[in-house]
Amino acid sequence: MNKQLKFLTRTVFAMFLVLFFSVTMVQFVQADELRANELNGRTVKNGYKVERGSILVDGDPVAYSTPTGDSFRFVRQYADGPLYAPVTGYFTHTQGRTGLESAMNQDLSGIGNAQFFTRIMNTLNGVAPQGSSVQTTIDPAAQTAAAEAMAEGGFEGAVVALEPKTGRILALVSSPSFDANLFATNSDAEIIANYRKLEEDPTKPLVNRAIAGDLYHPGSVYKLVSAAAAIEAGKATPSTEFPNPAQLKLPQSSHEMQNASRTSCGPGEKATLQQAIVMSCNIPIAEMAMGMDRDTIPDMARGFGFDQELSVPLKVTPSTSPVPEDQAQTALASIGQLDVRVTPLQVAMVSAGIANGGVVMKPSLVDQVITPDLRVEKEYTPEELSRPISERTANAVAGMMEAGVSSPEGLAKNAGIDGVRVAGKTGTAENGTAEDGSDLPFTLWFTGFAPVDDPQVAVAVVIEDGGGEAFGFQGGSYELPTAVGKRVMEAVLSE
């Protein structure tokens, strides 16, 4: 009998432990996750009572709540909706949310763990529930300059500007954008109708091209990664010379590589690495790459952030740089073609890392979370992501980029700013052929930073389809994205 009682007692005790563990997991460990779950009806209904916190740019609200007379009590409003939509996204009570409205939802809605005691005190004091505000890193002058430059040209593409020393995102523009106020209603029918209209738009305004979407071939801006890999590995210096033919037949391939000029890279029988960067020549870079191990450049790309999961806190689609299978693929990948694909954010990170002496900082869109009584609840500090290259290598690549702007033959010379040392690199990426056999329009790039001696801003600009119909789908990377990048850098430096 005693044996049976002991077994029963132990069984009950074990069941109690399991129950205690389960309750603890639900009430504490999984509490935030359960509250944030969109299927949690209680959270959704509780959200009706809360005045959602604001999203701030330089202290001014660009997303905020206003009272309504319906059961939802509040509705979201967006100042300069299209300008900041790639940053704020949109919020609806029952039809989803995007951007910072989604990524910072717990803070904005006041349901995060950090606000637990604030919620208790507000309840005891009879204070209406209110979410915290989120202060972004966005520089309104840089954001405006980027958005206006893209809109004036009628360009589809994106612009990203970073502060090299901290990783703070100063501008995040996706063009065309959309007006987040289209979702500033509590009518599900209206929200769904507006969403479908945007979703069916062939220009894809809902896609955040700066950090997501189908990604782009980087073309010649990827030569910065190739050059950094060769210099860091001791395989080249800016003055290293390579054979300088006008055409190069790739090994075990029928493909014949040419420079964009369809001529040699300058007049000599040899061309230096610096010449190849300044004049954006393909053949010397390909020859350099084929003289190294096939994984040398992809490894360098990963050092700059390729193939890594990033959250800023918006989720970023990883850029890719697979290891080539043979020498022909090595040559093509080294100039940003083949399977190399990038986001504009990633390209900006490459320039920012070079500008910052080889240190890549983790990009971030958020500076602070501020409570309704104006206390700083969270403060985001700069965080190092990686050190892919030495300061010596960074200086060497930066010097070549500066020559690309300051030299008369430099393709990035239009990025020059009076009285400022500017580094830059253009890029033109091929996108294959259409069904009728014609070449698809090129993707146009510019990336760079300024001032070289004390970098304040690094920028990446991508323009799709050769600039679009207004430019006959044949615009040049040395003019269109370069002009946009210059305007953004000038906006930051003029403050």
From TrEMBL:
Instruction: Give any Gene Ontology cellular component.
Output: plasma membrane
Q: Where is the signal peptide?
A: 1-31
Q: Which keywords label this protein?
A: Signal
Q: Name one GO biological process term.
A: cell wall organization
Species in which this protein is naturally found = Leucobacter massiliensis
Q: What is this protein called?
A: Penicillin-binding protein
Taxonomic classification: Bacteria, Bacillati, Actinomycetota, Actinomycetes, Micrococcales
Q: Where is the Penicillin-binding protein transpeptidase domain?
A: 157-476
Presence of the UniProt keyword DNA damage in the record: no
